[in-house]
Amino acid sequence: MNALTLPDIAAQASRQALPLDWVGMCGIALPILIDGQHLTATADAGVSLDDGTARGIHMSRLYLALEMLDQQPLTSALLRNVLQRFLDTHEGLSKNAYLRIHTQLLLKRPALVSPLAGWKTYPVSIEARLENQMFHVELKIDVTYSSTCPCSAALARQLIQQQFVDDFANTPLQHEAVLAWLGSANGIVATPHSQRSSAQLHVQLQGTDLPIVDLINAAEAALGTAVQTAVKRADEQAFALANGQNLMFCEDAARRLHLALKRSDAINAFHLKVIHAESLHAHDAVAESRWTRASA
Ligand SMILES: Nc1nc2c(ncn2[C@@H]2O[C@H](COP(=O)(O)OP(=O)(O)OP(=O)(O)O)[C@@H](O)[C@H]2O)c(=O)[nH]1
């Protein structure tokens, strides 16, 4: 038997003539190249099946087009070429092409004080589509950070003041005694609660850039207290200071990110969501914000 004799079911006519919005494959394993790193990724590749009479699309043609992603750095232009290949190989069948790529970007982050550094992963999804000949790219990025509750900090300060009044009532203040009191657990009787928090950024890009690392850096700079990697005591102390100077509700975090993302020329629109996994509650504090460029 040779290839010519193999039955080709996809080429048959469909019993129910009905176009479909998306047909393809999800969870395809592939390596991609971002920021000089070869990363493990999974891809969802699909096309619309506009010819409702066709039984099926040609899955293998989509799969083989993904080979373009193996060696070249991931750029908007490359994504567009892959999508165009999807359409070129489905002429007469499909008008729209879709590609989602999920990966974990690894970035090396320096410690706050010590000369150490360590790796952090950032879940990243890249969604590209070629619809009615219009090309769109969207990025989804998760960034984790620490947030300390400003209300809890104020309440803790009040308790410390109260303790000071109690401990030093009717006592002439002596510098050394106050210093020792400040360094004791008896003096600093309360601490504010803080939590590991995450920002989910979903941005629609304009132009030809795929500014994944820039966006992560901008988000972490706006938040101020990104989760750390290698930590010695000096780093932990610097982190405690950074948190104390960076008290924030989830609303504060959402507003800061909103302003930071809006400043990026690469972004056309965004939807962001911040989740503070409260240690005060068993539930989360959450804020969301959207923006679309006026000219979009
Ligand atoms: N369309 C379609 N194909 C499927 C599905 N599940 C598995 N396949 C298989 O995907 C394989 C690749 O399909 P094609 O790309 O059409 O393969 P081909 O006919 O050898 O390739 P071409 O000659 O390029 O058309 C076939 O063996 C299909 O049976 C499905 O749900 N839909």
TrEMBL record:
Converts GTP to 7,8-dihydroneopterin triphosphate. One of its GO terms (molecular function) is GTP cyclohydrolase I activity. Keywords: Hydrolase. The record marks C149 as: May be catalytically important. It catalyses: GTP + H2O = 7,8-dihydroneopterin 3'-triphosphate + formate + H(+). Belongs to the GTP cyclohydrolase IV family. Pathway: Cofactor biosynthesis; 7,8-dihydroneopterin triphosphate biosynthesis; 7,8-dihydroneopterin triphosphate from GTP: step 1/1. It comes from Pseudomonas lactis. The keyword Hydrolase applies. The lineage of its organism: Bacteria, Pseudomonadati, Pseudomonadota, Gammaproteobacteria, Pseudomonadales. GO terms for biological process: tetrahydrofolate biosynthetic process. This is GTP cyclohydrolase FolE2. Pfam families: GCHY-1. Its EC number is 3.5.4.16. InterPro entries: GTP_cyclohydrolase_FolE2, GTP_cyclohydrolase_FolE2/MptA.
